[in-house]
Write a structure and sequence with these properties.
Helix content of chain A: 40-55%
Number of helices of chain A: 26
Oligomer: heterodimer
Largest sheet of chain B: 3 strands, antiparallel
Helix content of chain B: 55-70%
Shape of chain A: globular
Mean pLDDT of chain B: 83
Structural class of chain B: alpha+beta
Order of helices and strands of chain B: HEHHEEH
CATH architecture of chain B: Orthogonal Bundle
CATH class of chain B: Mainly Alpha
Low-confidence stretches of chain B: 1-7
CATH topology of chain B: Arc Repressor Mutant, subunit A
Largest sheet of chain A: 10 strands, mixed
Strand content of chain B: 5-15%
Low-confidence stretches of chain A: none
Strand content of chain A: 5-15%
């Protein structure tokens, strides 16, 4: 039995041991009285001293403090409610932000054994791709010894009767469901033994959402035959709603990867070494490190390169990422040349976290001044406690325990607020249902930590001041007001910037005219079109489209503007890296998209080694020089023949993005889109355009979309973030105003006597107001300055999301400061009016 | 008239003395104080304020145990008994004390 154990025994049986000790002492005193006739000392105090040796006194004191604190909070429900509300708002916003971070980066997905699941991508010194060609994946699957299973997924679109748009279908390996430990909601899931062979009967597994939407949650759906792209397939079951499917885009159904060519007539996906479109995961053999698998795949790739030197890259490696997190599911199929683009999520998270902390700071500022005011109101009580012998440290501990209890309540409330906020954001942005927003232990710990940190920061100072019986709390109060002003100023300015950016995106010219354009994606590559066949198809389609009445011009582009597909190259100019959006287009493209050619000439059909660059690219690459005739920095040895106006066709929001146009080649045609400019309203043209495209090859399922709706979709996220930050900004502003109202009202009530005397001596109302408000004008001005500076620094993170609006946009700053100044003046004047109504006689008689 | 030392005995020394008087058999708290008082020719006077905290500490360390017994006044009280661990501790503290004491003596003698 060691000492710690005995100590714990004393804690658990405290009452019994205490009784024994009391008995010992009583006996001792009896004996002593018998001998010398006088009992000595205070029995209770002696007992407490002896008990100190057990080391548990602090628990008793803490329990005592806690009970007392609870009683005090119950006694002033108004104060408690406001304080908990402040904390709930401040902590809640941060809990929501952290909850999202947790969801994306920290929380394992709901799959079997997420720790051993790896996602692989291709990497070579000059290229990268986050998806592999099917045959390469199949080669790895066949030869890998470090991976116990290989999973793969290919996304596609299928036409289904009764749905206006094509539905999303994920083609997966037959082991996909069993490896991820999924259970069916209905029927069965894919089975490697039955569904893996290319000649197996065509089957699909429905997503729960699609099953409810399209089939009215028909319980007998398993066994039914449906037609996809006109081909019959049997529904074998429905996957549970909690199944993540390792993809953030929830598909309507899953089908075996080997049956992709059955649905997409002519598809060469299973044989094509050039088609980077299959995402690959591996299940690590027990006890192995990811490096072992990477090493093995690298040597397998080198072996495969001997057979396919053109398609497998030189020095190709297969780096892995942990796949058990939502972060990994967000990656998609990106590919490109040069170095990989940085993860764009981190700056956004940094921004959100900073904004959240600002809200917390404002809320805590209010909490601090509340506690401070309360400390002053409790002066009498504290004076009595000191008089009866309470030590300073004991008193501070007592007051601090109260803040801690407050923090605990605030944390709980904050957890609830945060969960509600996150939940509603998730519902609004229609993310898949399997992303579980319920707070886990990390989020709970975070809420508790945030609560305790706020209690320590903002409970300790007032507690010290109250315990020291110091009355000069003004300095602390002024600092709090300044900090609140600064924080809410930053939030309002950022909200103003986002609003301006949105407005700018809606009203200004993005450098091209999208309103009257219709984009057609025939999806030829999916149907295995060779470049030569694609050329015939494209020529026929364009000719027929030009013949349609109301069509002004027709063009082709590999990456349709505002579309999903984009090609990016990182270009290094004097140490500054530019992300160049590369597009491959035909000559009528510029006219169709109304991108002006500023200098030089247009591309000529069939030419190679020529390129048109955007003005922004020319300015960045060759500042002050004539770009015409220069060697382009992107292609092999392309010469710049023309300069086009800057037009952010793909990344609308990123003012840094620059464009380079290369002539479209026959090899690009299977993946290209056709763009149609209407002379009049484009809506009337959609139907004839769609039927024309379908008629060229009835086996294809062309996707026809108004570019306008693509534009609106792109702006949706900007809209919601502007809305969210504005909401935050106004909450912060409101909190700051509430704080100022409280502080000014308190100052007025403290100085009633002084104001009374001043009025009796004939001071004018303006003078009285100046006296009351003077002590706050300094901190407000300082806070305003700090806020503007902070916003200028912080908004640098946002620079590339602002649709070309500068992050120092004066209108946004002026607007935000204007709103802020108005509300603050209102908040200060409203309670200050009370000073004017002070009756000198009553004020002087007071006390 | 003798002067009772009011200054606190170093707690280490008190622990040593308690362990020592318990070596010859179990005693209750008051008897411990008395025994020390008597054995020190009434020089050392152990106050309750230091005796009981020291006893609690020794109990926690496991050097003594407390059992119920009947006092000479026929009252149910706790008797403190030395454990084997306490005996070992006593030896260790005693030799340590001797060593230090000798060292101090030699300094006092020669300096």
């Amino acid at each position: 039995m060691n000492e710690l154990f005995r100590r714990l025994r004393y804690l658990l049986h405290r009452r019994r041991f205490d009784g024994e000790l009391a008995d010992d002492l009583a006996f001792h005193r009896e004996m002593a009285a018998r001998e010398s006739g006088m009992p000595l000392g205070n029995a209770l105090q002696l007992r407490e001293q002896a008990r100190d040796a057990w080391g548990w006194t602090w628990i008793d004191r803490f329990a005592q403090d806690l009970r007392y604190a609870a009683r005090m909070l119950r006694k002033s429900p108004g104060f408690t409610l406001v304080a908990v509300l402040m904390l709930a708002i401040g902590i809640g916003v941060n809990v929501a932000a952290f909850g999202f971070f947790d969801l994306v980066f920290l929380r394992p997905l709901n799959v079997r054994d997420p720790a051993t699941l790896l996602r692989f991508h291709r990497r070579a010194p000059r290229n990268y791709a986050f998806a592999l060609p099917y045959p390469e994946m199949a080669f790895f699957r066949e030869h890998s010894r470090t991976l116990s299973a290989v999973l793969a997924l290919n996304t596609g679109k299928l036409a289904v009767e009764g749905e206006e748009k094509q539905i999303d279908a994920n083609f997966v390996t037959a082991n996909f469901f069993s490896e991820l430990g999924a259970t069916p909601r209905l029927g069965r899931l894919l089975d490697p033994a039955r569904d893996a062979a290319p000649d197996a009967a065509p089957v699909v597994v429905l997503d729960q959402g699609f099953w409810q939407r399209h089939f009215g949650a028909d319980p007998l759906v398993a066994g039914r035959t449906i037609r996809l792209n006109g081909k019959p397939a049997t529904v074998i079951g429905v996957a549970g709603g909690e199944f993540s499917g390792l993809s953030l885009n929830q598909p309507a159904l899953w089908a075996p990867l080997t049956q992709q060519p059955y649905f997409a007539t002519g598809s060469r996906l299973l044989a094509d070494f050039a088609d980077n479109s299959v995402r690959m995961w591996g299940r690590l053999q027990p006890g192995l490190a990811p490096q072992a698998a990477e090493e093995e795949l690298r040597s397998l790739a080198a072996e495969l390169r001997k057979q396919h030197p053109a398609e497998v890259w030189e020095k190709e490696s297969l780096p892995s990422d942990p796949a058990g997190y939502a972060k990994s599911a967000m990656i998609g199929n990106r590919s490109g040349t040069g170095s990989e683009s940085q993860n764009e999520l981190y700056p956004v998270f940094a921004m959100v976290a900073s904004l959240g902390l600002l809200i917390l700071a404002v809320a805590c500022g209010n909490l601090g001044s509340l506690l401070l005011a309360r400390g002053v109101a409790r002066e009498r009580e504290i004076a009595i406690r000191i008089a009866v012998g309470a030590g300073k440290s004991r008193l501070i501990r007592q007051l601090f325990t109260e803040s801690l209890l407050l923090a605990l309540l605030g944390s709980l409330a904050g957890l609830a607020v945060g969960w509600a906020v996150l939940r509603s954001l998730m519902v609004l942005s229609d993310v898949p249902a399997w992303l579980n927003t319920a707070p886990d232990w990390r989020v709970a710990l975070f809420a508790l930590g945030a609560g305790c940190a706020s209690a320590i920061l903002f409970g300790l100072t007032p507690a010290m001041q109250a315990a020291r019986q110091r009355h000069r709390a003004t300095a602390v109060r002024q600092v709090l007001v300044g900090a609140q002003v600064a924080a809410s100023c930053v939030l309002l300015i950022v909200a103003g910037l986002l609003g301006r950016a949105l407005n700018h995106a809606l009203s200004s010219n993005p450098g091209f005219a999208y309103q009257q354009v219709i984009a057609i994606d025939p999806g030829l590559a999916q149907h295995g079109y060779s470049p030569a066949r694609a050329k015939v198809y494209m020529d026929t389609l364009q000719e027929r489209l030009r013949a349609l009445p109301g069509v002004e011009s027709v063009a082709m582009a590999l990456s349709a503007p505002l579309g999903r597909r984009s090609e990016i190259a990182g270009v290094d100019v004097d140490g500054r890296v530019f992300r160049v959006q590369i597009n491959r287009v035909d000559p009528p493209f510029f006219q169709t998209m109304k991108v002006p050619l500023l200098r030089g000439r247009n591309l000529v059909r069939g030419e190679t080694h020529a390129t048109v660059v955007s003005e922004s690219f020319a300015r960045a690459a060759w500042p002050g020089e004539d770009p015409l005739g220069k060697k382009s920095l992107v292609g092999e040895d392309d010469t710049v023949v023309g300069v086009a106006g800057s037009a952010r066709l793909v990344k609308l929001e990123d003012s840094d993005s620059v464009e380079v146009y290369l002539p479209i080649t026959t090899a690009d045609l299977p993946s290209s889109s056709v763009l149609v400019r209407a002379a009049g309203a484009p809506e009337d043209l959609v139907r004839p355009v769609a039927s024309t495209a379908k008629a060229v090859d009835p086996n294809t399922f062309p996707e026809v979309q108004l570019m306008k709706s693509g534009f609106r979709q792109k702006l949706r996220s900007a809209e919601s973030s502007a809305l969210a930050v504005s909401a935050l900004g106004f909450v912060a502003d409101l909190l700051a105003c509430l704080g100022i109202v409280g502080v000014v009202a308190y100052a007025v009530s403290q100085r009633t006597r002084e104001i009374g005397i001043r009025m009796a001596l004939g001071a004018r109302p303006a003078h009285i107001l100046a006296v009351v408000l003077r002590q706050f004008s300094g901190p407000v001005a300082a806070g305003l300055l700090a806020g503007v500076g902070g916003a200028a620094a912080l908004s640098g993170l946002l620079r590339r999301q602002l649709y070309g609006v500068s992050n120092l946009d004066p209108a946004a700053y002026a607007g935000a400061i204007g709103v802020f100044a108005l509300t603050v003046v209102g908040a200060a004047l409203w309670p200050a009016r009370r000073a004017l109504r002070v009756d000198p006689m009553r004020a002087l008689r007071h006390e | 008239m003798q002067t009772i030392p009011k200054t606190e005995m170093p707690s280490g020394a008190l622990v040593l003395l308690i362990l020592r008087v318990l070596r010859s058999g179990a005693l209750h708290g008051y008897a411990i104080a008395q025994r020390i008082h008597v054995l020190s020719s009434e020089v050392l006077h152990v106050e309750e304020g230091s005796l009981y905290p020291a006893l609690q500490k020794i109990l926690l360390k496991g050097w003594v145990t407390a059992d119920w017994g009947i006092s000479e006044t026929n009252r149910k009280v706790r008797f403190y008994r030395l454990t084997p661990a306490g005996r070992k501790q006593l030896e260790a503290e005693r030799s340590e004390y001797d060593r230090v004491n000798e060292a101090i003596q030699s300094v006092l003698r020669t300096a």
